[in-house]
Specification:
21% helix, 2 helices, extended, four-stranded antiparallel beta sheet, three-stranded antiparallel beta sheet, 7 strands
Length: 163
């Protein structure tokens, strides 16, 4: 028998064996599953004398702490300590209106504005005089809305007007 013939024969045997393994695995994975008896039926058929008596649950066993941190005590200094005054409060944050203008809506003769509040991640429909995320809606027109926060006003417009 020549070398090429032996190689082809070995390759054919390996291929047939691999195909056989694949076919066996496919048959095994798709065969029907035998029906099972439900657990409730098994318990109903079992004699009750063999079951241990039911013990009521004592919930007080869960009252114990699992981990107790050691108490740390520090030595108190003998001399009196000088108390420092508390630091001054931080300056107020700059007025930052973080609302996004989405749309203008006309309800009868009154205009409303749809604003997106990124802090709450919600869309809010407001009219003049309403508050959205601490910002007062001063004026709503068909083209813009005037917002006020901490005494500063800002106009948001759907379309920027040319100078």
């Amino acid at each position: 028998m020549s070398r090429p013939l032996r190689e082809r024969t070995g390759t054919a045997i390996i291929a047939v064996g691999g195909i056989g393994i694949l076919l066996a695995g496919g048959w095994w994975s798709t065969r029907p599953i035998p029906p099972r008896t439900p657990t409730a039926q098994l318990l109903a058929d079992a004699p009750h004398a063999d079951l241990p008596p039911r013990i009521p649950l004592d919930a007080s066993v869960f009252d114990q702490g699992l981990w107790h941190a050691p108490r740390v005590t520090t030595a108190q200094p003998e001399q009196p300590t000088r108390t420092t005054p508390p630091p001054p409060p931080p300056p107020p944050a700059p007025a930052n209106i973080a609302l996004t203008l989405i749309a203008m809506v006309q309800n009868g003769d009154e205009w409303h504005v749809a604003l997106y509040d990124p802090g709450e991640q919600e869309l809010v429909l407001a009219a003049a005089g309403d508050r959205v995320a601490g910002v007062l809606v001063r004026e709503v027109t068909d083209r813009s809305v005037l917002l006020e926060l901490a005494g500063r006003t800002r106009r948001l417009a759907l379309v920027e007007e040319a100078p």
